[in-house]
Amino acid sequence: MTPATYHPTHGRTLPPPDQVITTETKNILLRNFYQRAEEKMRPKRAAPESLIPEHSCKQPRPSTSN
């Protein structure tokens, strides 16, 4: 299948001879949709073994009951 190429209808501004302008086979919206779907399917980081941090900044309040 030969890709569709641009052919100017005037001679005022001809593109460089090595430049090829083609259309994409896949719509940009579909490409974006598939890229986002692939990102969602990637494996995520494994959870740490202990979910409680060892050096917590929060400290329990001392009890004030007498």
From TrEMBL:
<dbReference type="InterPro" id="IPR033575">
    <property type="entry name" value="DDA1-like"/>
</dbReference>
<dbReference type="InterPro" id="IPR018276">
    <property type="entry name" value="DDA1_dom"/>
</dbReference>
<dbReference type="GO" id="GO:0032436">
    <property type="term" value="P:positive regulation of proteasomal ubiquitin-dependent protein catabolic process"/>
</dbReference>
<protein>
    <recommendedName>
        <fullName>DET1- and DDB1-associated protein 1 domain-containing protein</fullName>
    </recommendedName>
</protein>
<feature type="region of interest" description="Disordered">
    <location>
        <begin position="1"/>
        <end position="22"/>
    </location>
</feature>
<comment type="similarity">
    <text>Belongs to the DDA1 family.</text>
</comment>
<feature type="region of interest" description="Disordered">
    <location>
        <begin position="39"/>
        <end position="66"/>
    </location>
</feature>
<feature type="domain" description="DET1- and DDB1-associated protein 1">
    <location>
        <begin position="1"/>
        <end position="39"/>
    </location>
</feature>
<dbReference type="GO" id="GO:0080008">
    <property type="term" value="C:Cul4-RING E3 ubiquitin ligase complex"/>
</dbReference>
<dbReference type="Pfam" id="PF10172">
    <property type="entry name" value="DDA1"/>
</dbReference>
